[in-house]
Fold:
Amino acid sequence: MKTLNLISPPVSEITFQIFTFPDGQPHIKLDIKTEQRFTSCRILARISSMNDLFLVLAAKNALDHAEVEDVELYVSYLMAARMDRVMTNGEPFSLKIIADILNLGNFKKIKIFDPHSDVSTALVNRSAAIDNAALVRMAIEDFTEKYSSNNNYCLISPDSGALKKVYNVAQQLGIQEVAECIKHRDVSTGQLSGFKTFEENFGQKTCFIVDDICDGGGTFAGIATLLKSRNAGKVVLIVSHGIFSRGLTIAGIDYIYTTDSYQSFGEVLPNFKFYEVGTVLGL
Structure:
């Protein structure tokens, strides 16, 4: 099976060109020669904008015209995944809109890396989630090799919504200790009002906060303050999708691990590491 890598063109097995017409329309041209026909392909793409979504469907259409029968899609980041319900009157069900458009591609199957909730896979046809266990394992191994050779650490769920996913990762990796945090947020304004945890003393354990998305980082700064007030050692953030709308540093977070699922990174800080999402997914 050939791979069309829209995230990292240099390693794509199918070369392509992306450009924009004068009227603003994005366009893609795949280099598929008649004498080099193939029957199956997987597309690796991030969908962080409407342009990305159009290019994914345009690539699928081009493959259809080239008579490639089986086309799978691996989505590193799915825009609007957090808008998985109507929060307040007057707002759209954005994830449903994105899913309906994506379903027009009629892909053989779609794999979505660490979607925000099960609603994504419920709305996208023939889809399944890929969890973040591989990323968590890679991050913990890297951090413990660099800074600590013992197993004195625990996983932290930043809120009740993430708890099930964090427990699932802990079970896969054989990690015994998981602690839950609770945050209070006004859904109409997005304003955070406080954090709680049931743990009284972390005993200088390294605390790995595990979540799907980091946007501005306010949640994780608040949790880091709480954890350190309960005698946590280093506080490390592991997030699948790094938006970092307020920069690559977060108060109280000693180290950050993420992937390039949402965006590409150039030169980064010493306490920041990202993995190529294709590597995390084993592609």
User: Anything to note?
Assistant: The radius of gyration is 20 Å.
